[in-house]
Amino acid sequence: MSRDLPSSLLMFIASRAAADRVFHALHRAGFDDITIAQSRLMMGLDPDGTRLSVLAERAQIAKQTATALVDKLERAGYVERVPDPSDGRARLVRLTARAEAALPLARAEEERIEAEWREHLGPELMGQLRQALNALREITDPYR
Asked: Which residues are 84's β-sheet partners?
């Protein structure tokens, strides 16, 4: 007997499937020296860089784990640590040109996913889904 899954789990399943597709698309394009854990950490980076403690919080991992992941990403050339202009003692983790080169590929896969979901759900239901998710973001996204 199956049960109705909670909405939060349904959203997680769809989100995880989309993230996995983007990850695999990047691997197929030659960005195959990054792990899924590293890619999820990179999703939390702001355009101008992000402090390591914030990255760890966003990824819901220990700061030590985030440090190890960033160390590996830095060695692979995907991120760099730079001084934080707002606090000379702090450092920001920022994407490098190598990581920036992967962004159009990731965005293209995201667009394919959106198109498939729109085709599956229909434009009206897809619009309602996006509207509902944006409304939920108002109460769920602490980084908004």
From this structure: 87
Are 48 and 85 in contact, with CB atoms under 8 Å apart? no
- Residue 74: alpha-carbon gap to chain centroid: 17
pLDDT in tens, 14-36: 999 999 999 999 999 999 999 99
Contact criterion met (CB below 8 Å) for 79 and 95: yes
Phi and psi for 88 in degrees, rounded to 5?
-60, -20
Coil vs helix vs strand at 5: coil
Q: How many CB atoms lie within 10 A of CB 120?
A: 9
SS3 116: helix
pTM of the entire predicted model: 0.85
Among 6, 37, 22, 31, smallest CA distance to 108 is for 22
